[in-house]
């Protein structure tokens, strides 16, 4: 039987790609497309909005239809609604929204006590593989003579509202845990002085329609290693989220991440 999936924020940029790809996946059945009632396209067919033709699924703010998983790829306010919908429906939750406040994060952790939750700042397969590579590099370089400096550059489209990206922050968190780094800064200006070893610096670039790229720099004395992961369109994120929904449906309550989905 196909996994029944609901999309939260279905009229957004990522929501549209989830609809477009989800309706083509024979192992999935899209059963609900949620949006807030004040959205200008509320009530319209989600397939038409996504550019794939009429699907008979209109933008709604509630449903009695049962579903196995709900995917949220929206904004923090939308994420809050997705958590409530998932818990009420006893459905798995795939949380891909970034820029969450601590109150939203607390709600997600609380929900994981009663439903399965896949929570990750990036649903991309290659981003999560790169995170694993960064952990290996950080472990190997943490005690290198002369020290290793870590800088993270991220580039996204001009419409992205949070900065730095949740993915960049996750890269930094993983590396800091391996290397024992406690200081995180965002950009530099003026005369900050010599760079201390105990810091990770983040640099956010916002240009055009860039769907996302991250470069992690490990700078040593005499050599440098850079790991770069780059998206050419948003489908990599949507595909990963749909894969996560199939993984999470029917799982026991708890917090999962993309390493669980990918078997890393």
UniProtKB/TrEMBL annotation:
Binding-site list for NAD(+) = 9-14, 61, 96-98, 120-123
* Gene Ontology molecular functions: 4-hydroxy-tetrahydrodipicolinate reductase; NAD binding; NADP binding; oxidoreductase activity, acting on CH or CH2 groups, NAD or NADP as acceptor
Gene3D superfamilies named among the record's database cross-references: Dihydrodipicolinate Reductase, domain 2 (3.30.360.10), NAD(P)-binding Rossmann-like Domain (3.40.50.720)
Its biological purpose = Catalyzes the conversion of 4-hydroxy-tetrahydrodipicolinate (HTPA) to tetrahydrodipicolinate.
Assigned EC number = 1.17.1.8
Q: Which residues form the Dihydrodipicolinate reductase N-terminal domain?
A: 4-123
| Gene Ontology cellular-component terms listed | cytosol
Asked if Protease is a keyword of the record, the answer is: no
Q: Which GO terms describe its biological process?
A: diaminopimelate biosynthetic process; lysine biosynthetic process via diaminopimelate
Q: What is this protein called?
A: 4-hydroxy-tetrahydrodipicolinate reductase
User: Which EC class, in a word?
Assistant: oxidoreductase
Localization per Swiss-Prot or TrEMBL: Cytoplasm
Which Pfam families does this entry report, sorted A to Z? DapB_C, DapB_N
PANTHER family the UniProt entry points to: 4-HYDROXY-TETRAHYDRODIPICOLINATE REDUCTASE 1, CHLOROPLASTIC-RELATED (PTHR20836:SF0), DIHYDRODIPICOLINATE REDUCTASE (PTHR20836)
What the record says about family reads: Belongs to the DapB family.
**Known pathway:** Amino-acid biosynthesis; L-lysine biosynthesis via DAP pathway; (S)-tetrahydrodipicolinate from L-aspartate: step 4/4
Q: Name the catalytic site residues.
A: 156 (proton donor/acceptor), 160 (proton donor)
């Amino acid at each position: 039987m196909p996994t029944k999936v609901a999309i939260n924020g279905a009229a957004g940029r990522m929501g549209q790609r989830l609809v477009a790809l989800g309706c083509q996946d024979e192992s999935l059945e899209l059963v609900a497309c949620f949006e807030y009632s004040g959205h200008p396209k509320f009530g319209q067919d989600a397939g038409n909005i996504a550019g794939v033709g009429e699907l008979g699924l209109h933008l709604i703010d509630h449903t009695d239809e049962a579903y196995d998983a709900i995917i949220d790829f929206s904004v923090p306010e939308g994420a809050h609604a997705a958590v409530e919908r998932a818990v009420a429906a006893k459905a798995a939750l795939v949380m891909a929204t970034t820029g969450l406040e601590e109150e939203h994060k607390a709600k997600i952790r609380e929900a994981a006590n009663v439903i399965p939750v896949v929570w990750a700042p990036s649903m991309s397969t290659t981003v999560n593989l790169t995170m694993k590579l960064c952990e290996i590099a950080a472990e190997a370089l943490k005690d290198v003579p002369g020290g290793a400096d870590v800088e993270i550059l991220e580039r996204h489209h001009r419409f992205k509202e949070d900065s730095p990206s949740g993915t960049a922050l996750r890269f930094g968190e993983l590396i800091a845990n391996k290397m024992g780094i406690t200081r995180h800064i965002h950009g530099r200006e003026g005369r900050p002085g010599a760079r201390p070893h105990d810091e990770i610096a983040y640099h956010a670039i916002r240009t055009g329609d860039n769907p996302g790229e991250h470069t992690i720099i490990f700078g040593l004395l005499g050599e440098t290693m850079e790991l770069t992961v780059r998206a050419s369109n948003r489908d990599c994120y949507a595909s990963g989220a749909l894969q996560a929904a199939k993984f999470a449906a029917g799982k026991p309550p708890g917090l999962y991440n993309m390493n669980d989905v990918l078997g890393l």
